[in-house]
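---------- Forwarded message ----------

FYI, see the Sugar ABC transporter permease record below. Original note from H. follows.
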Amino acid sequence: VASVLVWERFETYGLDYARPVAVLLILVCLLLFVGFRTFIYRGKGA
């Protein structure tokens, strides 16, 4: 869903309007990845 929003913004308005949505998508993915890794490693150490 988010990738479609990025593509739609890019096609309609150009790179300047697609960039904030793309950056937000990347940040959310990175935060989820780091959160899951932290949760998994805490479970193994306990």
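H. also flagged this: The CA atoms of residues 12 and 25 lie 18 Å apart.
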